[in-house]
Amino acid sequence: MKIFLKIASYLFHPLLMPVLGTVIYFAVTPRYIEPELVRTKLFAIAIITLLLPIVVFFLLKNLGIVETIYLKEVRERKFPLMIQCILLLLIIKMIFNPYDDPEMYYFFVGILFSTFSALLMVFFKLKVSLHQMGVAGVLMLLVGLSAHFKINLLISISFFLFVNGWVASSRLNNDAHTYPELAAGFLLGTLPQLILFNMWL
Hints:
mainly alpha
């Protein structure tokens, strides 16, 4: 059981959620998008939200600013979250726009708001579950896409509801978070996406 719970922390790491959300969008959208454009955007998202943060992590680790990729201490979160906000702004400005890709544009705007909110909480010495925040954001994207395109994504939504519980149990089992930190992460992941539904639904 411990191994099963631990797997969730790796499979649904916060760095993977933007890429996962983008893959889900391109997989379910009924719009025709040229395969070459899909590959280009996925490649760009993977570089900006996954590869660059990993490179920055090793740089920060060598400087002694962070210890592990899980950022267990509140003080370790400040610089990674600041850098993540900058990278998300880059995606919003360069890769998606509100006219051609409103679903993805506002999904990443929601992620930016979530990340910035988590950063603000760091200055108050408060920690939230970034794992829970990321998975909750993808869950809300699925709900929004289902309503927007009028397609049945109930199985996928149900699966991500399960994943939310799986990730929460994993973080509790690892003593990485408390119940309030998990609840705060879930709220920070869902509320920005929910509020931004008004912009594209």
